[in-house]
């Protein structure tokens, strides 16, 4: 069965720490993997990844896809309290799209 | 540019009724996708419309349907509501397709009693 698994489910760190969030998938005919940040209600788009080994970067956030390992990581360096949120990954294949359960990140001052 | 708007924001319905939710995308965006979010199942993809055509569909029963108008506004309809349909329904628009940069609306919170 096609699935998307995120780990860890929950993470508590202190400001200034670096975190690495994982997303692994088992789907056929992979098309893309997306990362979102969800704070209150609506998710906000972070990255779209389609090619292995090419890092996408935005400020302190970066992400990379490994098609061989069927996984992606999202890195956040020098975390701030404003990074506290649920981070979702989603995988698109064929006509479907599936989200992982998310990683709840809490950054303490 | 105005963001994605959804109406209504909150809705309470009774089992067996039907409901229609509306989504107005960002001006110029032709792709509108719908999602259901529940504590138990997380965020799930319902369907995507592009230029008035349903382009992709998730694994939901036929009670869930949608349409898109020529101005890209989209509606989602759920017939014969069940308690399990209680959820936050989100729509998102994109200038290209759902795996391009999507902008989400605030959602419609549907409660079925």
What does this structure look like?
Chain A has 109 residues and is mostly beta strands. Chain A contains no helices and eleven strands. Chain A has strands at 3-7, 10-14, 19-26, 30-38, 43-49, 56-58, 61-66, 71-76, 85-93, 96-99, 103-108. In chain A, a hairpin with a 2-residue loop joins strand 6 (56-58) and strand 7 (61-66). Chain A is globular and about 40 Å long. The mean pLDDT of chain A is 93. Chain B is mainly β and 113 residues long. Chain B contains no helices and eleven strands. In chain B, strands 2, 4, 5, 6, 9, 10 and 11 form a seven-stranded mixed β-sheet that branches. In chain B, strands 1-3-8-7 form a four-stranded antiparallel β-sheet, with no helix packed on it. In chain B, a hairpin with a 2-residue loop joins strand 5 (42-50) and strand 6. Chain B is globular and about 35 Å long. Chain A binds chain B through residues 31-32, 34, 41-45, 48, 88, 90, 92, 95-102, and chain B through 42-45, 55-59, 88, 90, 98-107.
């Amino acid at each position: 069965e096609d699935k998307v698994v995120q780990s860890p489910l929950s993470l508590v760190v202190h400001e200034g720490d670096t975190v690495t969030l994982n997303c692994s998938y088992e789907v056929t005919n992979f098309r893309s993997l997306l990362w979102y940040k969800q704070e209150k209600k609506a998710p906000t788009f972070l990255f779209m990844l389609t090619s292995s080994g090419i890092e996408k970067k935005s400020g302190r956030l970066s992400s990379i896809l490994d098609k061989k390992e069927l996984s992606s990581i999202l890195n956040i360096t020098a975390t701030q309290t404003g990074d506290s949120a649920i981070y979702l990954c989603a995988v698109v294949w064929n006509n479907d799209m599936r989200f992982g359960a998310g990683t709840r990140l809490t950054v303490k001052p | 540019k105005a963001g994605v708007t959804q109406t209504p924001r909150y809705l309470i319905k009774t089992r067996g009724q039907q409901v229609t939710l509306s989504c107005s995308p960002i001006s110029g965006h032709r792709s509108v996708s719908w999602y259901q979010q529940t504590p138990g199942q997380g965020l799930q993809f319902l369907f995507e419309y592009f230029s008035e055509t349903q382009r992709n569909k998730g694994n939901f029963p036929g009670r869930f349907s949608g349409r898109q108008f020529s101005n890209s506004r989209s509606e989602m309809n759920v017939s014969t509501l069940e308690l399990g349909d209680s959820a936050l329904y989100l729509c998102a628009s994109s200038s290209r397709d759902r795996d391009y940069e999507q902008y989400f609306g605030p959602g419609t919170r549907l409660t079925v009693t």
